[in-house]
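**Sequence, structure tokens**
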Amino acid sequence: MKIGLQLNRFDYAGGAPAIGPTLARVARAADEAGFDSLWVMDHFFQIRSNGPAEDPMLEGWTTLGYLAAHTRRARLGLMVGGVHYRLPGLWVKAATTLDVLSGGRAWLGIGAAWNQEESDALGFPMPPLGTRFEMLEETLRIARAMWTGDRGTEERFAGVHYTATRLLNAPQSLSRPRVPIMIGGGGEQKTLRLVAQYADATNVFGGPDMLRRKYAILREHCARVGRPFEEIERSTLQQARLAADGRPGTETPEGLAGRLAALAEAGAQHAVLGIQNIEQPGVDDLAARLVELVHAI
């Protein structure tokens, strides 16, 4: 089983001046410990499950570029990008830039988004959900075209929401045949259908029973479009706190590995963890032990 780390909190001791050094230290330690991937959220305010909106939050693509400079092996991505935050060409150019500068380690993580309050506060136009799904599908079609061949394609794209006259992409991504695409979300009619048609990975939440259901539905969508189900990497985002003694509200590396083993039995191949106390002293050693255990699953 693969293991990833989502860095979803930046309220470090020392305030804003400490964010850069702390983030660099955590990323280096995770990379050296063998985490397969590192992720940040595509949000501009902290989300309610992690803390108040006023807590520090960093812009995602900029942060991934910083992480690329401080790591050597882990893949890097947004978990996951909100489609309405950027136009399709910018999505692809940003992911390609990260891929080239990181030596071929980028993911394009993207989804239909949900945070109406955040978008309203900062002035991002947020169309209705059905429209956002249409935008997402057109963005995925443009992405695959721009990652075609050595420099994209000369073909014109004319969709309902986007028109592009030349889908040039130079330099081309180092990851081939393209930067891998992950679509986040477990919507059974639209999201998982788009995964089957366009993506290289899916990411869904929940326990073993929920994952079994979502993956079974994804398998059905794959059958409808004539795509092998096993081509798609199945990942899940989970939250945790680590402690050597497993005190209330925390898990030991062994206990957490046991929880992830149950998810692997349900079909998950890549567990991405938001380890809420990852920056605290000693937790990096516990995380390194966890990596060893999860890679053995």
Summary: The first helix runs from residue 16 to 33. Residues 148 and 177 are 8 Å apart (CA to CA).
